[in-house]
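Write out this protein's structure.
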Amino acid sequence: MRIGLAGVGRIGAFHAATLTALDEVDALVVTDLDTQAARVLADRLQVEFAASPEELLASGVDGFVIATATPGHAPLLRLGLAAGVPTFCEKPVASTLEETLELAKLASATDVPVHVGFQRRFDVGYQRARQAVGDGELGFLHTVRVNTHDQAPPHAAYIPTSGGLFRDCSIHDFDILRFVTGREVASVYATGANKGASFFFQAGDVDTAAAVLTMDDGTLVTLSATRYNGAGHDVRMEVLGSDGTIGVGYDDSLAVTSAEPDVAFPAGPRHGSFMERFLPAYRAELTAFVEVAGGGRPSPCTVEDALQAFRTAEACEISRHEGRPVRLEEVPSL
């Protein structure tokens, strides 16, 4: 199988190395706006180089992986669909709700599969939690707690194009909520604050946020997100039911120090970034995409799935700005 990849930054370079290690991938073609960076990666991995995405798609690829910065996702996804090539796109598929809606409609009007990169769906902990919910092991659900806490903020230049903390960071929590519980978000009440670098405020963003979500079956969800968690990268979920509770992210890497005497847990080492935390999930995700591109399975995360997560993020942004609860029905959908 011949795979094309656009974007050779941190996540793109990692995806390129992962793809070359898969037995099903016979050839990889890489491209980037920074042609020199793409040539360097191509030489290092001994793969092919294309001067543009158009040249890459015209070279005859069986699958197309989009790993550029967010502004490049939507135009490249359109190119992939127009070429009829199965496409993997890192989240989000677009920077705005309007463009995400447009792409969801476009994708639904074609039989070209699109796999959106919400890697938590391939993490064994979240898959186990989903199984526990689906099997009724926890009884009825009443509360879910989710958090995404970055150890340190990204570069200041990233923030103005990120879409904001809810759309860039918490969107993973919104997607995994649907994946694990099988339910939809009905309403949100969100807030945010800035205590760190001024560039968040200057971009109209926040460095810390919290929200209370109500699912369509009445389950309550508490969410927190921050760019400043010096203890380490901390991503967790707790699913509380009438018969039991299950937690994701509770291993020795947990970025928490116990205040209880004579407690050695967690022993460490702690994760410093999402790449460390979800390394196996990223590999499983691309393995799944190769299966999708080969016609062996349907997309495990569609553009419509991405739209639902984006709608929740949009509702949180409206709530934060207007200081009120927002029902999801207020946010446009297909």
